[in-house]
Every structure is written in C-alpha cells, then in structure tokens.
Specification:
With 268 residues, the chain is α+β, with helices and mostly antiparallel strands. It has 12 helices and 4 strands. The chain folds into 2 domains: 72 residues, Glutaredoxin (3-Layer(aba) Sandwich), CATH 3.40.30; 181 residues, Glutathione S-transferase Yfyf (Class Pi), Chain A, domain 2, CATH 1.20.1050. The protein has a 4-stranded mixed beta sheet, with helices on one face.
Length: 268
C-alpha cells in the first residue's frame, strides 16, 4: 500500500473534499497543514502555484482535489466512489466543473464579504496592502480588493450569489426524480465535490437563501452531513466559537444577499 501524505489547510473546501474521500476509503494518511502567511520552502518547491491540497504518494506529488479524489478511487477501489457507467462518471465530473468554474470563487468572495472583510478593517493600511500584494495573482487580487472595499455590493459577490443559484437549481432538478444522491442512488465523488461548499453557506447561515424552497436539495444535504466522513472532515474540526462566529457574521449580510439574489432572478 502506498504511503499517503496530504499537504493541506484546515478550512480550505478543496482540501475538505479530498479528506472526505480519504475517510470514505478508510485509507490511512498523514497530514501537514500549511500556514499561508509563512509558507515553508519545501512547500514552495513541490507546489509551484502555492495551492493545496497536494497528495504525496511515496515519491510522487498529485495536484488538484478532483484529480486526487479520482486517483484515490482508482488506487483503492472499495468502496467505489465513482459511478459505474461512463454516463454516470460524466455527470459526476459536471458537478466538479460547477465548483471549478464559479462556486469556489463564489464561496471565497461571499465568505470574505461576511467575515474576513471585518478582520481586515481592523488592520493598518500597511498591513492590508501587504495582504493584497501577497495574493500574487492579479485577477484574484482584484477580487479581494473589490470585496474588501464594497462587501456584498461587489460585482464579484453578486456573481457568486448567481453561481450558487445556478448550482442549487441544477441540484433540485437532478434530485427531483427521487434519487438519493447527485449521480443516482449511490454516494459518489459528485456529492463529495459539492459538500464542503454547501457546508460553508450553512455555517454562514446563508444556505436557506437558495434552498429554502428546494426540498430535494435540503433532503440531500441532511443525508450528506450525517455521513461520518463529513463529521470527521468538516463538522468535527470546528469549535463552537468558530461556528457561532460564522453564523453571526453571515447573519449580518443575509438580508442583502437575499436581495441581490432577487435582483438576479428578476433579470432572468
């Protein structure tokens, strides 16, 4: 059996889905969390883009959480986390595509507007500018600056609200036929891909903005968050104070998020 070492960050949703997959596989692994304000040299050498998660497998390094999850399913085939048919696997990858093409950024911007923006307000101007410079990628830096300056009024937060609406609309439609999970009656990587991002909206007390009138999605979510892998990878890592803080900060923007969602829906 290969020796697995996950290089991670505790609250990163991409990391969380890799951890859920590892736990579902009942596969032993070691874990090292990275402090992004003080990255060790060895991390920079193996992760040229400075991203987590990374899965070190003996002498190999595997990048990207979706790739890591599929590697795990190929290497440890039981229990299978991919659908059995090519069509099912294509559907599974579409859920991953939702995340990579909008939901990750949506989660980052909404979370920033709710919590991290308030923390940055308490920094000195020099500290803030240092944080912005450390972002590196110009496009991501522009998103941070806009969200810091405008909060929920940022165009990026508005786009994020719209992207979550698109995802939850698709989920409700796919689950309307009575399937227990997103790719049918078996729990798969399709569900794992989505779970950490839905969790973040729930902890911010924002989830029902999108799902309040989507019973199939909420039933799916009840099943998903009851899984031991979710509890161990996400819920069990949060303290009561952390959960309370997210709920408080998210609650402050909840009404405006709902209003901006209504603005988006009125234009369809």
């Amino acid at each position: 059996m290969p020796k697995l070492h996950l290089v991670s960050h505790e609250i990163c949703p991409y990391v969380q889905r890799a951890v859920i997959a590892l736990i579902e596989k009942n596969t032993p692994f070691e874990r090292t969390n990275i402090d992004f304000d003080n990255k060790p040299d060895w991390f920079s050498k193996i992760s040229p883009l400075g991203k987590v998660p990374l899965l070190q497998v003996d002498n190999e390094v595997i990048f990207e959480s979706a790739v890591i999850c599929e590697y795990l399913d190929e290497t440890f085939p039981e229990p299978a986390l991919r659908p059995a048919t090519p069509a099912g696997r294509a559907r599974m990858r579409l859920w991953s595509k939702f995340i990579d093409e909008g939901i990750f950024e949506a989660t980052r911007e909404i979370s920033f507007s709710a919590m991290f923006r308030e923390r940055m307000k308490n920094m000195t101007e020099e500290q803030r500018q240092t944080r912005f410079r450390n972002v590196g990628d110009p496009e991501r830096r522009a998103r941070y600056i806009s969200t810091y300056e405008k909060g929920v009024e940022s165009v990026y937060v508005y786009q994020g609200i719209a992207n979550y609406e698109k995802m939850f609309k698709a989920m409700e439609s796919d689950l309307a036929g009575g399937a227990q999970w997103l790719c049918g009656d078996r729990f798969t990587l399709g569900d794992i891909n989505i779970m950490p991002f839905v969790a973040r909206m729930e902890y911010l007390d924002l989830l029902e903005v999108w799902t309040g009138k989507r019973p199939n999605t909420m039933a799916w979510w009840s099943r998903a968050k009851a899984r031991p892998s979710f509890v161990e990878a996400i819920a069990g890592k949060l303290t009561a104070d952390e959960i309370a803080a997210m709920k408080t900060h998210g609650g402050k923007i909840r009404d405006r998020v709902a209003q901006r969602l209504a603005e988006y829906l009125s234009q369809l």
